[in-house]
Design brief:
alpha/beta, Rossmann fold, 4 domains, 49% helix, six-stranded parallel beta sheet, Substrate Binding Domain Of Dnak, Chain:A, Domain 2, 24 helices
Length: 616
């Protein structure tokens, strides 16, 4: 079975019946996939190769240059970490560049002035007698320095507990600059540079921390400043959020710069009138992936779904425009769109797609281009083929969203003490961050939701982001009523606060919110992050970003359970370091467990052990 959701299965059948190729078909066409690549034993880093190591010991045991399995696997993993960290961090840079212009361009202003001032002061900027525009400009300049190599360490690393920083200092993995660590990682993995696997893996930690406490954290904080810090609100989710009698604009990707402008344009009275003149009842917006999470968290815009839904949205026949920015966007959506009236619109010079329509957004033209996108959607609405329309006959599922760290603290009465007391009393046994993607090798959302259900049954509070967050929402786990599925202790806490047992923390970059929350919790208790009854899980991950995320959680001292095996199994050394030896260095480690029930058992046992060591 491809998915656990009826709305998805019905559109999959519809498209299969007419012979439209989907991600699952393309996966099947790739079988059997390259075993050397799956084990991490292939190397294409220079033209003396490509090389591959025989995992059975009968063929070559070294590449042409002399690199063995341990070096090749470590280098491949390192390059994946560098790519993942670069992706999230470049996202953060884009936002900082807009922050530098906020208030000076029409499209973007400062929505959270208090957070701007707090963050500026954290960077050592004097905010007295300065305008908001001046503060924003100075903060942007200070943040851009974090991307370079002029400093000894990035600023936001100081949010970690002192004990954690000392561990990083002793290991030599404090990130000096976000871009610097990515560049050094790429340099080290060039042929003839770093050929000590352990040394390469240490740089993986440093590079990932540059993302977690650097690029991703900056992206989240600046998004809050520009678009507003999320607060709890309700919305709806699944393919039934699309409207047959309205113009449907799908917001897909990861960066809220484009989606925020489109949301504003779609609400303009003159454009709504134009849509009605075209025969529509209005303009409907729906999100996909992390751009969807961004506008869901801040504006309550409904979600159509997560990663593996993107082709299916077009297959409903009512997606008039799919507007994308970057990351996790399948090139195949353009091919599916050719079978319908749907326009796929790219907006970033970094992410153009063959045969898509390109409307480039900049801070200066975002208002005008957003209006252009909405008008295009209205024109495409007129071109719909009614015979191809099929919105699944299911009800949209309600969810509660908007749980920023600030919103959680506010719900607790302005202090973390109630949460600490609940953990000490055992009402809440621990906290788990469930993150990551969809992978067509796994039944869509099954592992995410199975893990979440079992954890809350054991009184473990779950916070989730990205595709995992969408998965849990689609099965109804993100409304206060879902507390009845939790253990007695967690249920009582949720009912007293009126919150669900699984809190939506946002998009993939918002995993940094989890780091901020855990660091604050550890500082309040007076322990290290590794001492907390906490863990992470990425049950259906696929992307290099997820590798970087998992690595910075392990570097921060957390157990991280992966449901999809990473390409490291060609090296016993690398496996041993990541699943065993790294724990003695950072307090965290990876565990690979595809079975979600067993993964939950591993996490619960880990949390119980941490509680025992804390004496609670």
């Amino acid at each position: 079975m491809h998915s656990i959701h009826q709305d998805a299965l019905r559109i999959i059948k519809k498209l299969d019946d007419v012979g439209i190729e989907l991600v699952w078909n393309r996966l099947e066409n790739q079988e059997p996939q390259c075993g050397y690549c799956s084990l991490g034993l292939s190397c294409r880093n220079c033209t003396m190769g490509p090389c591959r190591i025989d995992p059975f010991g009968e063929g070559p045991q070294k590449g042409v240059c002399g690199a063995d399995a341990d070096v090749i696997v470590a280098r491949n993993l390192a390059r994946a970490v560098a790519s993942g960290a670069a992706s999230h961090s470049d996202h953060g840079r884009d936002l900082v560049e807009v922050l530098s212009k906020a208030g000076m361009v029409k499209a973007y202003t400062i929505k959270d002035e208090d957070k701007l001032k707090r963050l500026a002061e954290e960077y050592g900027i004097d905010t007295t007698k300065k305008s908001i525009v001046e503060i924003a400009s100075e903060l942007a300049d200070a943040m851009l320095e974090d991307f370079g190599s002029k400093k000894e360490r990035i600023q936001l690393i100081n949010r970690a507990p002192r004990k954690r920083i000392e561990i990083w200092e002793n290991l030599g993995v404090i990130p000096r600059g976000i871009d610097r660590e990515v560049v050094e990682m790429m340099h080290r993995t060039h042929m003839g540079v770093d050929n000590e696997p352990a040394n390469i893996l240490l740089q993986c930690l440093r590079t990932s921390l540059g993302d977690g406490f650097g690029g991703s954290m900056i992206a989240t904080e600046v998004s809050d400043i520009l678009f507003g810090t999320p607060e709890p609100k309700t919305s709806t989710i699944n393919l039934a959020t699309l409207k047959e009698n309205e113009v449907n604009i799908i917001l897909h990707g990861h960066n809220p710069l484009v989606s925020d402008a489109v949301v504003e344009a779609a609400m303009r009275e003159d454009l709504v009138k134009l849509a009605k003149k075209a025969g529509a009842e209005g303009i409907n917006l729906a999100g996909l992936c992390c751009t969807g999470n961004e506008v869901l968290m801040r504006k309550g815009i409904p979600m159509a779904g997560n990663h593996l839904i993107q082709e299916l949205v077009i297959g409903t026949g009512v997606a008039d425009v799919v507007v994308v920015d970057y990351q996790c966007i399948m090139p195949a959506i353009v091919d599916v769109a050719k079978c319908y009236h749907t326009a796929v619109v790219t907006t970033s010079p970094k992410a153009k797609f063959k045969d898509a329509m390109h409307i480039e957004f900049t801070p200066e033209n975002a208002h005008e281009k957003a209006v252009e996108v909405v008008k295009l959607a209205i024109e495409r609405f007129k071109q719909r083929n009614r015979d191809l329309i099929k919105i699944p006959d299911v009800k949209p599922v309600e969810l509660m969203t908007g749980f920023s760290v600030e919103a959680v603290v506010k719900a607790l009465g302005g202090s973390l003490k109630p949460l600490i007391d609940a953990i000490k009393s055992g009402s809440i046994k621990g906290v788990v961050g469930s993150v990551g993607c969809n992978n067509p090798k796994v039944t869509q959302d099954k592992s995410h939701t199975t893990l979440a259900r079992k954890l809350i049954e054991n009184d473990v509070l779950v916070v989730d982001t990205g595709c995992a967050a969408v998965a849990d929402a689609k099965v109804g786990l993100k409304m206060p009523e879902a507390a009845k599925l939790a253990g007695n202790g967690l249920r009582e806490v949720c009912e007293s606060l009126g919150i669900p047992p699984i809190l939506h923390f946002g998009s993939c970059v918002d995993n940094s919110r989890i780091l901020v929350a855990l660091a604050a919790l550890a500082n309040e208790i007076g322990v290290d992050i590794s001492d907390l009854p906490a863990a992470g899980a990425a049950m259906e991950w696929y992307s290099e970003k997820a590798i970087a995320i998992g690595t910075y959680f392990v570097a921060s001292g957390l157990l991280v359970v992966l449901g999809v095996p990473p390409p490291i199994f060609g090296s016993k050394f690398v496996i041993d370091v990541l699943t065993n030896k790294v724990e003695s260095l950072t307090g965290g480690k990876f565990v690979v467990e595809p079975d979600a029930e067993r993964a939950a058992d591993i996490i619960v046992k880990h949390i119980e052990e941490k509680r025992r060591k804390l004496g609670i």
